[in-house]
Amino acid sequence: MDSVHKIVSPSTYPCQLCAVTYGLTSMRREWRAFLDETGLETIFHHRPDFRAAFPHAADWPLPLVAAEDGGQLTQLVTAADFTAIPDLPTLIRVVRARLAP
After folding, report:
1. Whole-angstrom Cα distance, residue 22 to residue 65?
2. What is the DSSP string of 49-87?
3. What sign results for the dihedral spanned by CA atoms 24, 25, 30, 34?
4. H/E stretch holding 38
5. With contact defined as beta carbons under 8 Å apart, do 61 and 83 qualify?
6. Is 0.90 surpassed by the pTM of this model?
7. Is 27 helix (H, G, I), strand (E, B) or coil?
8. Bridge-partner residues for 27, per DSSP?
9. Domain that holds residue 28
10. Domain count, the chain
């Protein structure tokens, strides 16, 4: 049903992060390549898993892209940021810029 929703009504798809990083059945190759290129461990959480893993951030609006360093979680791309991220190349540019030292 998820794939059908993306095709029939993409503007109402509930997760903008998944909408730009996943195709109909799997993660987009460009996103996987970018994640591999960063050299960082990547973990993906759905809403309940995220809240269980990071109770101190349970009230953060989702979706988001975050980085954990020394037990500290930092939001790289917030839910509000996703309103201005229409596609995968834009998301990659934003994450790359925010990971830069």
Report:
1. 15
2. HHHHH-GGGTTS-SS-EEEEETTEEEEEE-TTGGGG--S
3. positive
4. helix 29-38
5. no
6. no
7. strand
8. 22
9. 2-99
10. 1
Strand partners, 57: none
**Chain centroid to CA 73:** 14
For residue 34, what are its two tokens?
């970018």
**CB count in 10 Å sphere of residue 62:** 17
Length of the chain: 101
Three-state SS for 15?
A: coil
Is 34:92 a contact under the CB 8 Å cutoff? yes
| Token couple for 37 | 């290129």
DSSP annotation of 9: -
DSSP class of 26: S
Q: What's the pLDDT tens digit per position in 39-89?
A: 999 999 988 899 999 999 999 999 999 999 888 899 999 999 999 999 999
61 to each of 4, 51, 58, 85, how far by Cα in Å?
Answer: 25, 11, 8, 16
